[in-house]
Amino acid sequence: MIKEVFSEEETFGFAKKMAENANKGGIYCLCGDLGVGKTVFTKGFAKGLGIAEHITSPTFTIVNEYEGKMPFYHFDVYRISDIEEMYDIGFEEYIFGDGVCLIEWADLIKELIPENAVWINIEKDLEKGFDYRKIEVK
Ligand SMILES: Nc1ncnc2c1ncn2[C@@H]1O[C@H](COP(=O)(O)OP(=O)(O)O)[C@@H](O)[C@H]1O
Ligand SMILES: [Mg+2]
Q1: Cβ atoms of 47 and 79 closer than 8 Å
Q2: Which stretches of the chain drop beneath a pLDDT of 70?
Q3: Distance (Å, rounded) from C-alpha 108 to C-alpha 124?
Q4: Which protein residue's CA is at the shortest distance from atom 9 of ligand 1?
Q5: Which fold has domain 2-137?
Q6: Ligand 1 within 6 A of 7 CB?
Q7: In the chain, is it the N or the C terminus that has fewer CB atoms within a 10 Å radius of its CB?
Q8: Any atom of ligand 1 within 6 Å of the Cβ of 34
């Protein structure tokens, strides 16, 4: 499925809707270049899970945990240099747990991602405008 958006607010709203339909144990993998809108998407997603807390990027901590309608685990694995680090933070307990996982830069750890994950790729296309994004969901 492909969604084209033309503003940050639209990305936020699209992610919020997706989260409203998320189930326990859902895994959402976000891919796309730096600055494309993965964290914006995550903020909308968290809102859709009923999380009021401010979402910050867990760049140095790898994972931030929130409590909404269900537990929400926000990963940013950009700085992972070795996949072993994921085991060290207890990745398997998060990923096979009852919460919802959203992983920015999931393509860097794709061998660890279960089959049932939803993959979301965000891309720019400057010919269609500065704030245009193509969001592909698989
Ligand atoms: N359609 C859009 N969707 C998401 N972000 C957008 C959009 N248009 C412009 N932006 C801007 O792009 C930047 C995305 O930043 P961020 O979400 O932190 O990216 P990433 O997490 O992918 O590195 C923000 O400054 C945001 O305002
Ligand atoms: Mg980010």
Answers
A1: no
A2: none
A3: 20
A4: 131
A5: Rossmann fold (3.40.50)
A6: yes
A7: N
A8: yes
Residue at 119: amino acid letter: W
59 touches ligand 1 (CB under 6 Å): no
Q: Ligand 1 test: best mutation among 30, 38, 39, 40, most atoms within 8 Å of CB?
A: 40
Residue 130: partners with Cβ closer than 8 Å, 6 or more residues away: none
Contact between 135 and 121 (Cβ < 8 Å): yes
Ligand 1 pocket member 5 (CB < 6 A)? yes
CA atoms within 13 Å, Cβ hemisphere of 122 = 30
pLDDT digit string, tens, across residues 30-61: 999 999 999 999 999 999 999 999 998 887 78
Give the long-range contacts of residues 88-96, CB within 8 A, separation 24 or more. 89/62, 89/63, 94/63, 95/27, 96/25
State how far the alpha carbon of 50 is from the alpha carbons of 54, 69, 80, 114, 124, in Å.
Answer: 12, 6, 29, 25, 28
Q: For residues 20 and 35, what is the distance between their CA atoms, to the nearest angstrom?
A: 25
Atom of ligand 1 nearest to the CA of 5: 1
